[in-house]
Automatic annotation (TrEMBL):
Beta-ketoacyl-[acyl-carrier-protein] synthase III N-terminal domain segment(s): 118-197
Organism (species): Candidatus Haliotispira prima
UniProt KW keywords: Acyltransferase, Cytoplasm, Fatty acid biosynthesis, Fatty acid metabolism, Lipid biosynthesis, Lipid metabolism, Multifunctional enzyme, Transferase
Name used for this protein in its record: Beta-ketoacyl-[acyl-carrier-protein] synthase III
Gene3D superfamilies on file: 3.40.47.10
Length: 345
């Protein structure tokens, strides 16, 4: 069954012209972590599918990674920085706490002097949230014609490297999509965003915000909760159910079945989560694009990095349908249905 006649946004399509990504040079293998932590390559691979991750240098922030990816996407699409009129940047690891936004820092780095720039926070669902915000702004009015949607993260700076239950899971990176009104590029056919704030404490950084600010003079030992804390089992259960819900709802409301999709691009948090969705929904694993073995969980950057790799693989044909599925802290979850375009890169 392939009936996109009922697709929810036929009227004013917004298209993705190009994807690009950047990851830091330094690769940290599981074996390297096992040298300083009570863990092993065997445990990490068997519980998560992760073999290595890229880790930012001491002086690299989210905007530095985003800038490298964004320069690439501009070059791919032959678009000048001044032509960009909107930058939406999703991150849970902004350059600065509160303000200025990382999007504004990026705007200046790129020379996008005509762009409105702002950050959004939706953790690992952030890229899909950002895509929908940018798309809605482009559909709503004539002011926005070319947008950068960015997912950029340096989780290595907010994880406790002594906590084996979290530090092995994350990596750093950035991915960017350039949106335009080119109808021969990749169409954003449908998006579905959801939130469940009841699960906020299942995955969080408890201290450092206005609820529990850092106090001058307070020692590190007295403020140990400035790192990511997670109830891994609860997040796992949420993730599997959330992905199933989004998958089925998007397919149903677009009159599609899984067989109509070329690829499912899930948030790369844990291979076992992806395998559980595949098993429950009876979907062959080959339909899921995965690269978690090389990058680990790069949060808001994971889906655009995956899409950029998929685009570069040459494996996609015009008309192919791709469903992206995201979930993350908040709790948030989301999906976006894309139709690959002949002029996309
Ligand atoms: N190396 C060795 N042993 C470990 C490690 C490690 N790195 N981490 C935990 N263990 C141990 C635990 O201490 C525990 O030992 P115990 O039985 O002696 O107490 C044992 O392994 C089993 O621990 P569990 O937590 O039950 O392991 P589980 O099989 O549930 O896997 C995991 C843990 C991988 C974290 C899993 O729960 C998971 O993937 N959860 C979802 C995580 C996720 O997706 N997070 C990102 C969300 S996205 C975002 O918004 C940032």
């Amino acid at each position: 069954m392939n009936s996109l006649a009922g697709s929810r946004n036929d009227a004013r399509h917004v298209a993705i012209k190009s994807f690009a990504y950047h990851v830091p040079e330094r690769v940290v293998s599981n074996q390297e972590l096992a040298g300083s932590l009570d863990t092993s390559d065997e445990w990490i691979v068997s519980h998560t599918g992760i073999r290595q991750r890229h880790i930012a240098a001491r002086d690299q922030a989210s905007s530095d990674l985003a800038c490298r990816a964004a320069r690439q996407v501009l070059q791919n699409s032959d678009v000048a920085a001044e032509e960009i009129d909107l930058i939406v940047l999703a991150t849970a690891t902004p350059d600065y706490n509160g303000f200025p936004s990382t999007a504004c820092v990026l705007q200046d780095m790129l020379g996008c002097r005509n762009a409105v720039a702002f950050d959004i926070t939706a953790a690992c669902s952030g890229f899909i949230y950002g895509l929908e915000i940018a798309r809605s702004m482009m559909i709503a009015g004539p002011d926005y014609n070319k947008a950068l949607v960015v997912g950029a993260e340096v989780f290595s700076k907010i994880i406790n490297w002594q906590d084996r239950s979290t530090c092995v899971l994350f990596g750093d990176g950035a991915g960017v999509a350039l949106l335009s009104r080119d109808s021969s590029a990749t169409l954003v056919l449908d998006s579905l965003l959801k939130s469940d704030g009841k699960g906020a404490e299942k995955l969080w950084v408890p201290e450092g915000g206005s609820r529990a600010p850092f106090c001058p003079g307070r020692s590190q030992a007295m403020a140990p909760r400035k790192y990511v804390e997670m109830d891994g089992r609860a997040v796992y259960n949420f993730a599997v159910a959330a992905n199933q819900e989004i998958l089925n709802e998007i397919l149903e409301r677009n009159g599609l079945t899984v067989a109509d999709l070329r690829y499912i691009v899930p948030h790369q948090a844990n291979l076992r989560i992806i395998q559980a969705i595949a098993k429950r929904e009876k979907i062959p694993m080959e339909m899921f694009f995965t690269n978690i073995d090389r990058y680990a969980n790069t949060s808001a950057a994971s889906i655009p990095i995956a899409l950029a790799e998929l685009a570069a693989s040459g494996d996609l044909r015009a008309g192919d349908l791709i469903l992206c599925l995201g979930f993350g802290a908040g709790l948030t979850y989301a999906g976006v249905l894309l139709q690959w375009g002949k002029s996309s890169q």
